[in-house]
Amino acid sequence: MSCFIQFMIQPVLADSPQNLSPPMVISGSVTLNGAPTPDGSNITAWDNGIVVGFNLTMGGQYSIEVCGSPDVNCNPGDTISFKLNGQLTSSQSTQFSIGTINSMDLSFTGELTNASTATSTSVQQQATTTVTSVVSTTTTPEYQSYAIISILTVLLALGIMADRRRTRTDN
Predict the structure, then answer these.
(1) In this predicted model, what pLDDT tens digit does every residue of 113-161 receive, in sequence order?
(2) Quick check: 93 and 85 in contact, CB under 8 A?
(3) Who's near 168: CB < 8 A, 6+ residues apart?
(4) Taking the domains of the chain in order of start, what are their residue ranges?
(5) Is the terminal CB of the chain with fewer CB neighbours within 10 Å at N or C?
(6) Whole-number Å distance between alpha carbons of 147 and 63
(7) Cβ-proximal residues to 24 (8 Å cutoff; 6+ apart), any chain
(8) DSSP code, position 73
(9) Whole-prediction pTM
(10) Are 21 and 52 in contact (CB under 8 A)?
(11) How far apart are CA 88 and CA 110, in angstroms?
(12) 119-128 long-range contacts, Cβ below 8 Å, gap at least 24?
């Protein structure tokens, strides 16, 4: 199993920068017109017109890794802005700082035209619609290697757990 995973990870690691800096993590509450955003709303972080992080809201909360992809370059001091479902821009922004964890509440004002945020639809439908739009609009080369590394890390962890379980049952 470990040889297979090493075979799968090696090409991805060869393309990754050796000096990948830790991302900045930002989390907090997120509101739209003073009320918590619907579950499954898409929050994106932007640096100079480039998406440098994204995640979905849950329970009026968000958490986002900024510049966590090896293909995204942020410089300390860059201004990071935020958008809701790619339509509304928050008045809050922050300065990028490598490896920090920050708490920042975001508020958005305005009307969304995206049907995925309608309160009459179920949370599952909202999340599915939002994820579909995120994947179709943000699956760029800068996120592909990051996604592959994340998936392979999960597979590696599952393989280790299965191996440990098999070792316990053999003893």
Answers:
(1) 854 444 333 334 433 443 443 444 444 555 555 556 666 666 666 666 6
(2) no
(3) none
(4) 2-170
(5) C
(6) 17
(7) 65, 66, 67, 74, 80, 96, 97, 98, 99, 100, 101, 102
(8) -
(9) 0.58
(10) no
(11) 7
(12) 119/38, 123/38, 123/39, 123/40, 126/38, 126/39, 126/40, 126/41, 127/39, 127/40, 127/56, 128/40
Can you read off the two tokens belonging to residue 19?
Answer: 């000096």
Domain spanning 2-170: CATH superfamily: Carboxypeptidase-like, regulatory domain (2.60.40.1120)
Question: Distance between CA atoms of 163 and 137, rounded to whole angstroms?
Answer: 38
How far is it, in rounded angstroms, from Cα 151 to Cα 2?
15
Give me the residue label for tokens 């849950």.
Answer: 58
Tokens in use for 20? 């990948």
Tokens 């001091």 belong to which residue?
77
Residue 128 CB contacts under 8 Å (≥ 6 apart), including other chains = 40
